[in-house]
Amino acid sequence: MKKTEQSKVLIEAILEGIHRIKGKDIIHVDLESIDHTECGHFIICHGTSSTHVDSIAQTVEATVKEIIGEDVWHRDGYRNAIWILLDYGDVMLHVFQEEARRFYNLEGLWADAKITKIEDEQ
Q1: pLDDT for 29-71, tens place per residue?
Q2: Which domain holds residue 90?
Q3: Domain total of the chain
């Protein structure tokens, strides 16, 4: 499977995990057209509390493992659950508390990338 196809399957599994636990305001930042980036894609969402942020990240890890059998390469932020990063190589998931998301404004930092809002599942 090509890298772009692998990333697409991984992104779908990540989104499924976020939807399972009702992550808020999900966006996909496609960084592939930008030179010298750490990865090809960011998925960004937020939760309503540290417990919700923690639950979103844990559910994504379990869902990705369940659907495609892949483990996260690196994780950071579980201790305070203000901003949890899950690094899957070409795809990084950022799960914030809402206030921290507004403060760090990753969407604004990467405004020259292709940004897609992901609709909430009903």
Answers
A1: 988 877 767 788 999 999 999 999 999 999 999 999 999 999 9
A2: 3-117
A3: 1
